[in-house]
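We store amino acids, tokens; thus:
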Amino acid sequence: FDLTWVVDRVLWSHDFHDGSIALREEYMRLKDSRLTLHDLAPDIRLHYERHINPVIDTTPRYTIDGLADYRFLKLFARKVRRFFFVLLRPSLLRARLRWAYMMFPETLRRFSYRFRFNLPRAYRALQIAPDLRRKFVYVPLHFQPECSTNPVGDVFQDQIFLLRTLAASLPHDVVIYVKEHPFQWLPFGHGFIEDRYRLFYHYIAEIPRVFLVPISTRSIDLVTHAIAVSTVSGTAGWEGILRGKPALIFGHPWFQFAPGVFRVHTVDDCRGAFALIQHGLSISQSETIAFLSALDRVSFHGYYDESTKRVSAITPLENAENFAKAF
């Protein structure tokens, strides 16, 4: 099952590589139909209208919730609740004290990264302010580890490999702007991890015509001004499509059959996509509406995480029934 993040719409498939065959077939059937916005279900129509409005912040709900969980007061309250929960259970308290004793050196090491060379400092030392007047491809990094890159990205879970492949195929007057995921540094602290090792940002910055931009740069501005968006399977690719921007996709997201999506794996694939983009490729609104209409017809309302549950209008019983019907 795939959460599409189009409100609470869920798609099912047998294999994530193939995606939703039902969605692909329904879109091909509707592709040449003369559908309008009024033919869309109200929730999908609102989703589309919000994303084409340049003044509305369309940051995904899961990102908003993730950032909120790490605000100081909420984090402090969670720690206090956990402390008293453990304190009132002697066996659990003993286990936690034993764990704290064994993990003390690691905890001290991670805490020390706040005062020495760390991930945010490594990133900020290399970042530049983006020039939105240039021709550029926007590449938002994925939060890792997560299924959106492994397994959905196959070998492109290595995002530096993605950037090198993309950079080797760029037209001479185009650059790449890369932005770190706003949630990446919060769960793991400032220390280095397997997916963000000590020289990770350095290796990105040394790729010709690839530039790191401040994490505070609004994604909506980068998507709006880019000639294309490229990602493994991220939501930014879908946001770009809704705004009429081509998307070079290296993985297998739910929207891999949408108009304007180039499913790429090699330098030659990317060069072919850029050739079409340079010759004025455009995504018509009618094609996008046809894809959204296909999504409406083959998806169902549901959720299996808290962020989607908050925006869904169905009850837990209806949610269970909808999944059971899909099975």
About this structure: The chain has a mean pLDDT of 92. The CA atoms of residues 73 and 79 lie 10 Å apart. The chain is about 45% helix and 10% strand. The first strand starts at residue 2 and ends at 3.
